[in-house]
Design a protein that fits this description.
The complex is a heterodimer. By secondary structure, chain A is α/β, with parallel strands linked by helices. A 5-stranded mixed β-sheet of chain A has the order 1-2-5-4-3, with helices on one face. A two-stranded parallel ribbon of chain A has the order 6-7. The radius of gyration of chain A is 16 Å and the shape is globular. The mean pLDDT of chain A is 85. Chain B is α+β, with helices and mostly antiparallel strands. Chain B has 15 helices and 8 strands. In chain B, a hairpin with a 2-residue loop joins strand 4 and strand 5. In chain B, helix 4 packs antiparallel against helix 14 and helix 6 runs antiparallel to helix 11. Chain B starts with 6 loop residues before the first strand and ends with a helix. The relative contact order of chain B is 0.19. The chains are: A alpha/beta, B alpha+beta. Chains A and B meet through strand 3 and helix 3 of A and helix 1, helix 8, strand 6, strand 7 and strand 8 of B.
């Protein structure tokens, strides 16, 4: 499913739920659903529990620091229906807060803590949001592009 | 009236069953576990950050150092991800060699699991036997690429070099002797009453719980969930082989042990078939020295001995990844610890840790 979302009945139904807040973005080969963060929890509820989707596995959760925003990336998989979908939401680097999905997929717990630790995204509603890999008194978030180690990129 | 209170016990970071540098903070009520909190980060090297200042090819040796007892799988997952991003097709012989190497590595990794489970429960002979037999596989890897643990054997476009002439006879001999080795271990451990008592009905994780926690690999399949990426989304030539996916019934520590033991046998079956079908030909596609994948992003995952190993790469069209994330099964599987340990005895925690089989190099990526 992640291969082509346009003309995909599943994706179009999802999009029709909240036409203002959900978009299909990306090139043909790597399409995904982009959802406004206020709508994230509504959407993932549907994706997990609705008969037609049943995305019961959160395979991978990560985030990327782009020049204009931070992007949180959810790779979902439905074991009963054997289909995958890519979901994204965005927030600004200065105001990096998104709702936590741990209530829907408990497996997000460590992954959200990791993103909080390394990219400084606050997950509202997370049961135990602490640094997980770096010491508690560490300053900064290393995976932000503004955090440099002296290594050169180009 | 006697007043009791809970107390805290720090297990690790140097306890043998914490596999290196994991600390488990246990809140105990007598010998009963009230809360088990894993603390990690002791090995954290910032590999994802390092990736952003290295070229795609320069990152291959780093993948070896994540799950360092199954480095072939890490090489494979990373190389396939980049190949998929760039649309590189690799020669048939290379596909087969990759499967032979990763399946051998699965056996080697499960032997370590078996050995460390044995020693964690106090059976040092089990550990000796596991490590002794694993040496045979390391000898084969040594022949193929000159390294015993960090191989960098699988490269973009194929594998580093073809196997030498002595490799196939040595592999055939290993495969001939492997059933005997496995039988010896079943005799030593599976038939052992103490092990049976320590693992049976211990730390049961139901299929539903396992999915919620995000378990993958043998730990998930022990709970009866049929999810193996080699079958669900066959990569390489896995659809050409006949093999079974062992499943557990109850999801206790015993099932997690048995599933891995059975998987070793299935891996040997795959290697045998791959050896039968192994064609002649080149093992490496000609590629430019420095790769420049097109702008875009990709997530690709493979079945590693510890579960679903995924790579998420964002390319900005330059020679270095803009962002590289590794979905490490050890890290996510470790979430099962706090939930499953509640109410167990202190000694059972050791068995749970061993059967989750997390590897710290991969946890603190």
């Amino acid at each position: 499913m992640s291969e082509s979302l346009h003309n995909n009945p599943l994706a179009e139904t999802i999009q029709a739920l909240y036409p203002e807040d959900i978009k299909i973005i990306g090139e043909d080969t790597q399409q995904c659903l982009l959802v406004e963060r206020e709508r994230l929890l509504d959407l993932v509820q549907v994706l997990k529990h609705d008969e037609c989707y049943q995305f019961n596995m959160l395979r991978n959760l990560t985030a990327v620091d782009y020049p204009d925003y931070l992007e949180i990336v959810y790779h979902l998989y439905s074991l009963p229906l054997r289909q995958a979908v890519l979901l994204k939401t965005r927030c600004l680097a200065e105001n990096a807060e998104v709702p936590s999905v741990t209530a829907i997929w408990p497996s997000a717990n460590f992954q959200e803590r990791e993103i909080y630790d390394l990219l400084g995204v606050v997950f509202n509603g997370h049961p135990d949001l602490r640094r997980i890999l770096l010491p508690d008194d560490f300053t900064g978030h290393p995976l932000r592009k503004s955090y440099t180690t002296g290594g050169r990129r180009n | 009236m006697v007043k009791t209170e809970t107390y805290t016990l720090n297990m690790g970071p140097q306890h043998p069953s914490t596999h290196g540098v994991l600390q488990v903070v246990l809140e105990l009520d007598g010998e009963r576990v009230v809360q088990a909190t894993p603390r990690m980060g002791y090995l954290h090297r910032g590999i994802e950050k390092l990736a952003e200042s290295r070229t795609y090819a320069q990152f291959i040796p780093y993948t070896d150092r994540l799950d360092y007892v199954s480095s072939m799988g890490n090489n494979l997952g990373y190389c396939q991800t980049v190949e998929k991003l760039m649309g590189i097709v690799i020669p048939e012989r290379a596909e087969y060699l990759r499967i032979i190497m990763t399946e051998l590595n699965r056996i080697a990794s499960h032997l370590i699991f078996m050995g460390s489970l044995a020693i964690d429960l106090g059976a040092s002979t089990g550990m000796m036997f596991g490590f002794r037999d694993r040496e045979r596989i390391l000898d084969l890897f040594d022949m193929a690429c000159g390294a015993r643990q960090t191989y960098s054997y699988i490269r973009f476009g194929g594998v580093a070099e073809d196997i030498p002439s002595e490799f196939i006879p040595a592999l055939r001999q290993f495969l001939a002797e492997f059933p005997g080795m496995l039988a010896e271990k079943h005799g030593l451990l599976t038939g052992n009453e103490i092990l049976h008592h320590r693992l049976k009905d211990n730390a049961v994780i139901t299929g539903e719980q396992a999915l919620a926690i995000g378990l993958t690999g043998p730990a998930l399949r022990a709970s009866g969930v049929d999810y193996d990426l080699r079958k669900a989304e066959p990569y390489g030539f896995y659809d050409r082989f006949d093999f079974a996916v062992p499943l557990g019934k109850t999801g206790d520590s015993w099932d997690r042990y048995l599933v891995r033991m059975e998987e070793m046998q299935q891996s040997a079956r795959i290697v045998e078939q791959a050896l039968e079908q192994l064609p002649e030909g080149p093992v490496l596609t000609k590629l430019p020295k420095v790769l420049k994948p097109p702008v875009g992003e990709i997530y690709h995952s493979i079945e590693n001995p510890r579960g679903e190993l995924g790579y998420y790469i964002v390319s900005d069209g330059s020679t270095k990844p803009y962002r590289l994330h590794v979905r490490r099964p050890s890290f996510i599987n470790l979430q099962a610890l706090s939930e499953t340990c509640q109410g167990l005895l202190l000694a059972d925690v050791v068995a749970v840790l061993a059967t989750l089989d997390s590897l710290m190099g991969e946890v603190d990526c």
